[in-house]
Specification:
306 residues; Nucleotidyltransferase, domain 5; Hexokinase, domain 1; 2 domains; 6-stranded mixed sheet; 12 helices
Length: 306
Amino acid sequence: MKLIRKHEYVSRNFSCLENIIHDFLKGTEGIPMAAAFGIPGPVSNGIVKSTNLPWVIDEKILIKKTGISRIKLMNDLAATANSLPILASDEIINIKTGNPPENPERYVVLAPGTGLGQSFLIHHDGKTIVIPSEGGHADFAPTNEIEAELYQYLLKKYGHVSFERIISGSGLPNIFDFLVEIRKEIPEKETIEKMKTNDRAAVISEMALSKKDKVCEETLDLFISILGTHAGNLALTFLADGGVYLAGGIPFKILPKLRDGIFTKSFLNKGRMKSVLYPIPVNVITNSQAALKGAAKVAFEINKQQ
């Protein structure tokens, strides 16, 4: 596949997906024969209600309104999972070594960003199947005393505590607030000032990585520990012999911390099943456009289905 044209849009500035498509195709010769789109939210019978936008997108309606004869809608993390077979070696960084079999079959994609996405990929007998998931909204289960306190704090705040409430862009401030409000820890004045005008999650990561604020460091340590726990849960549940791939907007930005041992310790903390996880590698996807790459792969494949 070869990239011919690229343009970024702010989705909330448009009332529907077809308006973006029409704008993108303006001035181009002809209409694509096939297209695929990764949308946050579960897709059912070719229809998806976007998680973060007031959009309901239907493949059949989209085909009529755009003139594109073949369209495939998928969850955005399913699009990312579709990219795994075609990612280049320089688009992946290993953070936990493993010993996968010669022909691995099962892979996990876990993506902490604005939310927490996940998906699964099976490669068997030359065929690839991607399984979407909304497991980021599954119940969080604490594994130690401080996590139990965090759970109680968030339960009172939200009524239900999912992993997304903790290991996501909104999760970092949740952990920070817990440490300040319940554990009575005192952040640096610089942190508080920066949070007045900047994204709180970004400030926490920045202050933690630069070692300028102990509360931010503890916040990020808790975040990474719980991320490791959840990644290990998924690897064990799916027996992901091909590995776990971390995507989304956060992992690459906190790469040094992912390598310091906290993540791997929590990943392997599975009691009698610890030995099952030793051979499973964990990688960070460095290409922020992996979902786009995966969607392009799907469009290419459905175009061949005459």
